[in-house]
Design goal:
The protein is mainly alpha-helical. The chain contains 7 helices and 6 strands. It has a two-stranded antiparallel sheet. Strands 2-3 form a two-stranded antiparallel ribbon. The protein has a two-stranded antiparallel ribbon with strand order 4-5. The protein is globular.
Amino acid sequence: MATTASLEALSKLRELNQELGWYVVPFLVLVLYIYGVEVKSARETGNWSTVFAGLTLLGLDLINEIWNGLIFAFSDHSAFWTTPGASAYIILIGWNIEIAFMFSIAGIVFAKFLPEDKNKKILGIPNRWAMAIGFTIFSVFVEILLNRGNYLIWEYAWWHWYNPVLIFLIGYFHFFVGAFYVYDLPDRKSKVRVVGIIYAIGIVLLCIFLPLGIAGIINF
């Protein structure tokens, strides 16, 4: 039986919130501005690493959100995480427009903190892995705060504030690992190839499941 949070999220799925919808516009402008600045810099310097780090993290999040929706679809109980609360637009059962905007620039923010020397160590750990661990811990902490405020609903014992191992590993850590992996690839062609594969996976999954009308993925 579907949880209350799941039913609430489904009732609002892909319906623009009349009270909150307008702030999507300035949020979109801010995201476009950030990417515009980074693209301009990349054109001038020939270094596209930061742009592709941003796209990588967003693409990995898209895949995460699809399988999370499928958890609900096949269990008919709850996704691992559900976002039924205040949002301008709920895209999937655990993914709203605010989360999408956040993840669209999170990879860029992460890239800004990466040392130029990838061989440098932080606390004895290679700096890429140390930064990924640090950003993941911070992200999980923020998620716990959102959960405690009932903005982000967790139903399962293995995905909860008192048992955050899976949240750490498959909720965030691989996002940042993927971002620094693409960031450090030696040429733009390699970056395009990897990012293209990530988005191809996400698009194929959407093309397969959206037409099936599976609850949590699509709702008409």
